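Q&A log
Question type: sequence-to-structure
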Amino acid sequence: MAPDPSVKWVVTLLVLLQTVASYLVRDLPWKWVFFWTYAVGGYVSHSLTLAIHEISHNVPFGNKRPRWNGYFGVFANLPIGIPVAATFKKYHIDHHRYLAGDGLDVDLPTRLECRLFSTPLGKLIWVFLQPLCYALRPLFVRPKPVNRMELINISAQLAYDLLVFYLMGTKSLTYMLASILFTSGFDLITGHFIAEHNEYGQGCDTVSYYGPLNWIALNVGYHMEHHDFPSIPGRKLPLVKKIAPEYYDGLPYHYSWGVVIWNFIFKVDQGLSARVKRRYKFNHSL
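Response status: OK
Response body:
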C-alpha cells in the first residue's frame, strides 16, 4: 500500500502543539497545570500514541523505508516523555501475526490481572492503571532483547526530557509526563483499548467503533478493517468499509467509547476475561 504523507504533517503539528503547551504552563499554579494536562495535553498525547501506531505500520514513508519510519516514531514519541515507540512496534507486529495468541499477543491481559481486577471497583482501578499494565506486561509474558532502535528511542527521549526540564522547568516536564498517564488512564478515547478486542459476540474478538472520536483518534476505531488490511493508512479505512459493506455491515460495532468503558466496569459478562484466546503452532527456532 502507498504511504500516507499527511501523517508526517499531522504528527509534526501535534509535536509542536504539545511542546508549545508544555512551555505555556511553565509558570501556572499547579491546579491549572493539571487542568490543562487533562483538558488538552492528554488528548494530544493520546493522538500521538495513535500516530505511533500508524508509524509502526510504516504509513508515513512506506514499507521500503523502515528506518525512516523508525526515526520518525522516535520523533513522534518526544512530547510523550516516556520511550514507547520502538518497543511498541516490536510487539505490535506480533499482535497482528498472532492475534489473541496466548503467550504471544501481549495485548491479552494476564491471568493475574483477570483475578485482581474482576470486580467493578477492580476494573475501575485497572482502567486507571492501563499505562502501567501495558508497559509491564510484555516483560512477563514475552520478554525480548532490546534492539538498536529501542536504544536510540531511550537516548533521544532522555535527552529531550532533560532539555524540557532545563529550559522550561518542573511544571512543563510534569505536564508532559502526566499527559500520557491521564489520557491512557481515564478519558473517552481510552475506551478504544477495551473496545478493540473484548469479546462482544461469540468468537468476535475484533470490533470496530464508528463514532465521531475517530476524527482525533486517526480512525483507530475502524479496527476490524485495520486487522483485515493493516497496511492501509487510517485515513483510508472508512473507504474500506464503504466499498465492502457486505463484509462489515452485519458485524457488531460500537457507537460510543464511553458506553464501552461503562459496560466494561459494571457488566458481569464484560471485563478482562472477556477475551478470545488462541493457541498457535509454529517453529520456535524461527
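Response note: The radius of gyration is 19 Å.
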